[in-house]
Amino acid sequence: MDVFLKGGEIATRNLTPGINVYGEELISEDVEYRLWNPRRSKLAAAILNGLENLDIKNNDKVLYLGASTGTTVSHISDIAYDGKIYAVEFSPVTAKKLTRLSRQRPNIYPILGDATKPKEYMNLVEKVDVLYCDVAQPTQSELFMKNMDIFAKEDALGMITLKARSIDVIQKPKKIFKQEEKKMIEKGFKIIEKIKLEPYEKDHMAFVVEKNF
Ligand SMILES: C[S@@+](CC[C@H](N)C(=O)[O-])C[C@H]1O[C@@H](n2cnc3c(N)ncnc32)[C@H](O)[C@@H]1O
Fold first, then answer.
1. Ligand 1 centroid from CA 152, angstroms
2. In this structure, which residue's CA is closest to atom 13 in ligand 1?
3. Distance CA 165, CA 203 (A)
4. Is residue 18 domain-resident?
């Protein structure tokens, strides 16, 4: 994965030199880099915490659920510069910003849609190498698995970031993560890696999974 260390911080090579996306610093060298803020992006937090098993390549197809305004999507767009990022977001206001971003970055395909209803965008998305899910909803692992079943290539990897408080405000995070892990294993998913997102995000856990076909 094309992620670079710049003065102790991580960065991606800017696909749109001279333009930043969320106020991040640009670093001009032989090429231009954008610093990747782990407090704004859970994928950056996972990378800084030692993520080992999610490799996004330059020509990968990625399905991203919960794209918001495109903070993390924009860094994936830098990494998978020759690929495609199908970015699903269900808030029309937020998706507007995402659409604006996609005009600058031709590898982003914004989709105004509900990730709990993947059949509604089935005709817009092809099979993908990587499926990333960050929707912060109580049923996030269910909708993640549903999308994996439809869109994952046989050797695809999925990454889901779970926020304990979005699932249950009373139970202990450890117990919630165990329950969600069990659900995925029971549905035929193999857990490849688990990674806590502290100190960047409290009570969050990211899982990298594979579907057993
Ligand atoms: C935590 S934010 C995502 C931040 C983003 N992933 C990033 O790193 O830049 C969660 C987003 O998921 C969206 N969302 C929640 N439920 C959704 C659903 N069922 N389908 C699509 N998007 C959803 C929300 O509108 C919100 O923008």
1. 20
2. 66
3. 8
4. no
In a domain? residue 15: no
Start-to-end Cα distance in the chain: 25
- Ligand 1 centroid vs 64 CA: distance in angstroms? 9
The C-alpha atoms of residue 15 and residue 79 are separated, in whole angstroms, by 9
Domain count, the chain: 1
pTM score, whole prediction: 0.96
Q: What is the atom index within ligand 1 of the atom nearest the CA of 71?
A: 9
**Residues of the domain holding 135:** 38-211
- The CATH number linked to 144 is 3.40.50.150
- Return per-residue pLDDT of the chain as tens, 213 residues: 999 999 999 999 999 999 999 999 999 999 999 999 999 999 999 999 999 999 999 999 999 999 999 999 999 999 999 999 999 999 999 999 999 999 999 999 999 999 999 999 999 999 999 999 999 899 999 999 999 999 999 999 999 999 888 888 888 889 999 999 999 999 999 999 999 999 999 999 999 999 976
